[in-house]
Amino acid sequence: MVSVDPWLLITVILGFAMAWAIGANDAANSMSTAVGAKAITPKQAVLIAGVLEFTGAYFFGKSVTETIRKGILYSDKITDPQVLVYGSIAALLAATIWLMVATKFGLPVSTTHSIIGGIAGYGIVYAGLSVVNWDKMGQVVLSWILSPIIGALMAYLIFKALTKSVFQSKDPARSARIWSPVWIGLAFVVIGTMFYIKVLHGKDLKTGVLFYGIPLGIAVFILSYFLIKVRFLSSDPYIGVESIFKKVQVVTSGYVALAHGANDVANAIGPVAAVYAVATMGLAGMQVPVPKWILALGGVGIAVGVATYGYKVMETVGKKITELTNTRGFTIDFSAATVVLIASWLGMPISTTHTVVGAVIGIGLARGVKAINKDIVKDIIISWFVTVPVAAVVSAVIFKILMFVG
Predict the structure, then answer these.
(1) 274-286 burial by CB neighbour count: b if 16+ within 10 A, else e?
(2) Most buried pick, 49, 131, 195, 385, via CB within 10 A?
(3) Burial (0-12, 13-18, 19+ Cβ within 10 Å), 168
(4) Residue-wise pLDDT tens for the chain (406 aa)?
């Protein structure tokens, strides 16, 4: 009979729960604008996001992961493998609990910040405040503030430029035929480059732009130019433009789901891989290999989370902050992808969740402050500020209990 390390079994179960919670909360990043603008139905969003999140996680998830996410703790101060096991369990459970609470209230929070809070919590209990890399923690705090502000500013500027070039021109039908392919082509330059960096995990921005972004952008520009020329509804240019961006939005949302699966699966399976390495190889280093079955575990968990509970946060971001149309939804996806790309290039910490929500707010502000639901925005901002402290405290308590009973 094959014996299984009980701590590994517990961690696997918690890793699946964390992946489920990630799917439930982060589905809004990819699909909320498409659902809010009625480009797709919630059921279609769940199906598309579920398939692409799993594809991203399983086929494009990194084969090596950090045992301590984002280097938030000094690893040389945690050398006992058993502490790493207990700490991983505490961080996973704390982050999962917080994500479930936030999702229950429909609040979009950063899964990365949640797991970072959990890791910091057990680290401080075990080795004191000096174990935390406060420079890294400062970058996380900075991302709370920068991500939504830059996302909002980018969305505001792009939406203003898009509406001026199309809707506010003297001949909207003619402008739509000329400018729509330009905007769509530009968006796909960003998406192609992001595919290289976020999905294929490429490092060289120049390679991404030259060999992925620009070729894809030109191909999409040519394709959309001819499709718009043939099928554009010239009788009503406003409906015609919205119908164009409705189709584009499905593709941009699908890309975000794929990239999210490829990247954020690490938040759930990183601790599982860490405990697996300790249980099977006695490894307790900064990085450990990730077996394919663990990536599949994370991918399935995220897909199930999207399908079973993703609708709550999707509704908040897509419908409750401000009213969305297809051009507004396209602008949000375009803006968020552009901000994340520039931040990756500059090495700036950025939260995709905060950036997307910031972009939604920016779109609302483009139509005036009254277009924003200020109460829901206030609740979201409060949830962002308490994410790391709450996850840290819960993790610290769980870690203490595990050290006591373990």
Answers:
(1) bbbbbbeeebbee
(2) 49
(3) exposed
(4) 556 678 888 889 998 999 999 999 987 777 888 888 888 888 888 888 888 888 888 888 776 666 555 678 887 787 788 888 899 899 999 999 999 999 999 999 998 889 899 999 999 999 999 999 898 888 888 877 888 999 999 999 999 998 898 878 888 778 888 888 899 999 899 888 988 887 888 888 889 999 999 999 999 999 988 888 777 666 677 787 888 888 888 888 888 888 778 877 888 888 888 888 887 776 666 677 778 888 888 889 988 998 898 888 988 998 899 998 888 988 998 888 888 888 777 766 678 888 999 999 999 998 888 889 999 999 999 999 999 999 999 999 999 999 988 6
